[in-house]
Amino acid sequence: MKKTIMVMLIISFCTGVMLTGCGKGEEPVELKPLSPEEPAPAGIPEGEVTPAAAHEETSGGEAALQPVAEETPDDAEGTDIGESADTDMTFDNIRASVEAFNLKLYKEYEGKGNLFYSPCSIVSALALTDLAARGETKEEMETVLNITDFESFKQEMKAFNERKQSEKAYLKTANGLFIDKNLKLSDSYKEDFEDPAKEYFKGEFRSVDFKDTETVKQEISRWVSDATEEMIPDYKTAADAETVADILNAVYFYGEWQRKFSGSDTRKDLFRTAEGDKEVDMMYMESEYFRYVSDADGVKAVALPYDDGSYEMDIFMYADPEKKETEGIFDIISGEDILSRLDNADETELSTLALPKFKMDLELEGLKEKLGSMGLERAFSGDADFSILADSLQISDICHRAVVEVDEEGSRAAAVTEVVMKLTSVMPMEEVKEDFIADKPFVFMIRDRESGVILFTGRVNEL
């Protein structure tokens, strides 16, 4: 009897061990490219280095970057779509930062002409750069970025980038750090910059020689092309022979409409502007329900969801059909207010929804000067303090380019933000049937519905 009990206990223990070994999480969802001809989302490009593992002592007793073997980061933990690896994690800090920064930056570019950029990318690139900042430089950067708790912001950024997503609507992000191999790094570089850059931002490090400028330019261009699924295949970097650090953020968005437009319903129609009318390809849909605001202080808005509703495109235009412009649209009602009203709006049947097909490929001209007028000045001056990375550094330039395509199937969008660093020695509504006919200038945003983070913002004034 005792032998029988002992055998049963041993069998039970072994079975438990085997079951425990099988309890791994699900593999992450593989992101689907737009078409079978497109390459699958790329991993870390060839040539990535791990700076901390490659430190060598120089004559000055400071560390220098050296190339090492390629390293692939661990896969993200399996999570439900729209959730972080930590199910209790919220994204309040990221959402508030991007929303406030976006509305300030949009007003800096208020005017005529088209506009398209990713506030999420710009904030991410500057927040990554902020890891290297100290003192008044850090305070100034976080004030402009509206970051009140950087520790929480970093934790949220990590969770935001590790979420599992749908194959039909997803955001892909990448951060590349190109560091000159001759730059003398600070003593606290690994602990205070490299490690958090990799942990919270999934930073990909490369050791390069900026004196070999053409080679580095080609390498950065290839990195951007891979990170944006070739939507930006020909990026022209601002880095030159005097650059010692180049920090890049790239984002790629793919989204299929939850309710797709039928190609047979697309027809030529007029897009009406103050400068005149132009015939364009206009997509139509009838008798479908969307969250809709018919008139909020003179502005109307509609939310068009992608796939399962995790992402959406929000469109804003003046309610007055004769007001054929976008200027001042966020003066009569704040962006925060109209987004809040749209989030809380009931689904309304739209008798007709019309939206033009369009493409844009734009650079933000004068971004450095715009950020200066928003209060980011010290980081661009000789008084900058990025000594966590290295002594005597300042931001010499910041560049941004974004591309978007909108058609009957959905949307694709990509953006890249580049921070170039040099040594300071060198420079709710009642449900009624309504129409939403976007046949005149409008503003639009692509948002992560779950977190509220604004991924892209655009203005269509002309087609």
Describe the structure.
With 463 residues, the chain is α+β, with helices and mostly antiparallel strands. It folds into two domains: 260 residues, 2-Layer Sandwich (Antithrombin, Chain I, domain 2); 126 residues, Alpha-1-antitrypsin, domain 1 (Roll), CATH 2.30.39. Helices cover 26% and strands 31% of the residues. It is built from ten helices and 17 strands. The strands form three sheets. Strands 3, 7, 8, 9, 10, 11, 15, 16 and 17 form a nine-stranded mixed sheet that branches. A six-stranded mixed sheet has the order 5-4-6-14-13-12, sandwiched between helices. Helix 5 packs across helix 6. It starts with a helix and ends with a strand.
Question: Which features would summarize this protein structure in a list?
Answer:
alpha+beta, six-stranded mixed beta sheet, 26% helix, elongated, Antithrombin, Chain I, domain 2, 31% strand, 463 residues
Topology:
Blueprint: H1 2-21, E1 56-57, E2 63-64, H2 92-108, E3 115-117, H3 119-130, H4 135-144, H5 150-161, E4 169-180, H6 189-201, E5 203-208, H7 213-227, E6 243-256, E7 267-273, E8 276-296, E9 299-306, E10 311-318, H8 329-332, H9 335-343, E11 347-356, E12 358-363, H10 367-373, E13 393-406, E14 410-423, E15 434-437, E16 442-448, E17 454-460
Parallel strand pairs: 4-5, 11-15
Antiparallel strand pairs: 1-2, 3-17, 4-6, 6-14, 7-8, 8-9, 8-11, 9-10, 10-16, 12-13, 13-14, 16-17
Helix pairs in contact: 5-6
Level-1 CATH class name of the largest domain:
Alpha Beta
Share in helix = 25-40%
Largest sheet: 9 strands, mixed
Strand content: 25-35%
CATH-wise, what's the superfamily of the largest domain? Antithrombin, subunit I, domain 2
Assign the CATH topology of the largest domain. Antithrombin, Chain I, domain 2
Report how far the terminal alpha carbons are from each other: 87 Å
The best one-word shape is elongated
Total helical elements: 10
**What string, H for helix and E for strand, traces the elements in order?**
HEEHEHHHEHEHEEEEEHHEEHEEEEE
Average pLDDT over all residues: 83
Alpha-beta classification? alpha+beta
Radius of gyration: 25 Å
